[in-house]
User: What shape does this take?
Amino acid sequence: RHILAVSDAHRLEIVSLEDPARPRRVASLELGSDRGQAAGVGVPTDVTVTDGIAYVALGRSGMAMVDVGNGKFGGSPAKPTRITGFHAPFASTHAAYGYRSRTGKWYAILSEDLPASADVPASSGVSGQPGFARIVDFTDPSHPEEVARYEVPEAGVQDLWIEGDRLYVAAQNGGVRVVDVSADLKGNLYHQGREIARVVPTDGAAAPNVIAVQAIRGGLLAGDRNTGVWMVRLTPRD
Assistant: This one.
């Protein structure tokens, strides 16, 4: 019954749709300016909500975690309360998602953009902004700890989606990667045999460049910058 949006590059806005004909702003929370914006890198782009907690991507300022209805940290839609955050140097948080593992751990999984550099030459084949998925353990919110990542050497990581115990990765020229995140998360998941499926959509005329993914009705939607939107059905192996 509410809409959450990142506004003016540094503020979380909450709009009530209790009366759809008369939407009204019920709260606004200042989250700080994005220092990276002046350099043209890392404009804030996204907010997601899991279990009443908003995960706000703030570009070069990292991410902020806000109680917007969970209640454990004193927040509500009318009184959003900042819980904690995470910021790492030399990266820009493009999107952030919450994940409660069956192991009892509480994670935030972040899509991180990296500034182009000599470390990612044009000949590498990476299409678009280089990046990776950063996994931060927030089980103790006062002491967040980066514990794992998912990094595709031959591609970037543009966006993510989490459903159940699966992480869906929009990996640009690497297509869509489906990763098992059910067990404890440590190290680089790419090297741990956790990849369940890989789909590289192409019509044969244009190179793949998947920039968005969302699980839906047992399959997934993949948004490709060059060839449009794809519906993919995942079927179990015999």
User: Anything to note?
Assistant: Confidence is low (pLDDT under 50) at residues 34-42, 120-125.
